[in-house]
Amino acid sequence: GHCAWALGANGALAPGDPQLYKVVDGKLYLNFNKQVQQMWLKDIAGFITKADSSWAGIPDGKRFG
């Protein structure tokens, strides 16, 4: 999976670490590293909203690669 913060903050794909995650409303969100996770935790709802908007602009072939 991809890092939830990277997509929400930068509209970019970055790998997610399966050891650094949070489940929000039944969905799994990964983060790149502990430092990134700390930033993400400060505005989870805001980053999710931004990431959902950014996700539509990511080409299908890159979404899960």
Question: What does this molecule look like?
Answer:
With 65 residues, the protein is an alpha+beta fold. It contains four helices and two strands. The protein has helices spanning 4-10, 34-41, 44-55, 60-63, and strands spanning 17-24, 27-31. A two-stranded antiparallel sheet has the order 1-2. A hairpin with a 2-residue loop joins β1 and β2 (27-31). 25% of the residues are buried. The model has no long low-confidence stretch (mean pLDDT 88).
Low-confidence spans: pLDDT under 50, at least 5 residues?
none
Number of helices: 4
Give helix % range. 40-55%
Gross geometry: globular
Helix vs. strand class: alpha+beta
Strand content: 15-25%
Give the SSE string. HEEHHH
Q: How far from one another are the termini? A: 8 Å
**Number of strand elements:** 2
In spatial order, strands of the major sheet run 1-2
* Average pLDDT for all residues: 88
The major sheet is characterized as: 2 strands, antiparallel
